[in-house]
């Protein structure tokens, strides 16, 4: 167990962490939703996503592969309700512990602010980090309700760390965010219609990314007809097959971490939780 965690549940097929094999993966949950502005409940995401993971077989029919990757579930981070900045600091420290063990982090959220700490730890470790950000929203606000640390400012804080951003599935943003994107050189956008109509162009772009990649997936990137239990559901989202295609392409690159956040439900068997668990399951199958 890591210093600042506890273990309420484990993701299916996870290994015991008494003997760590390096170059594997370490899972943590971040049960935090204190800056949620619409639908709360993502603090329970880590529990329901882990529970949903037990519905899958070890053989992944979609990719015709067994899940053979080694990964460890270290439990949930001890967050500070109401204090996003300090919670992000705890996440950063915990991710650094995972990196010190020779593992790559996988984070289950919880609200999207958890990504700030993870990206900070990885940006400090990797000189040229690209964040592939799948989301309905840009999350590029400088402040949201006078707060710099928030689910709506995640990618602005990441951009300030010097990372390159690839934003996929975007279909909601402010005029200020659009102007900010136009003013920068290192934010590439594939909006929802680009994904629906030009998957080949997206896959070509991903294939040509150089250097380490961190994947950040807000569950509201999925169409709400499939995944309604999210903080900010937005119509016109991606479908499961599209996410599978993107993950398959990304799995051939140098992936240094993943988060799947914003599952907001307290119901076991919730469809959003099942899809979130499947995304993590697919990723672990693909990366071996």
Explain what this protein looks like in three dimensions.
It is a single chain. The chain has one domain (5-287): Arginase, Chain A (3-Layer(aba) Sandwich). Helices cover 33% and strands 19% of the residues. It has nine helices and eleven strands. The strands form two sheets. A nine-stranded mixed β-sheet has the order 1-5-2-6-11-10-7-8-9, with helices on both faces. A hairpin with a 4-residue loop joins β3 and β4. It is globular.
Short description:
This protein is an alpha/beta fold and 288 residues long. It has 9 helices and 11 strands.
List descriptors.
alpha/beta, 288 residues, 11 strands, 9 helices, 9-stranded mixed sheet
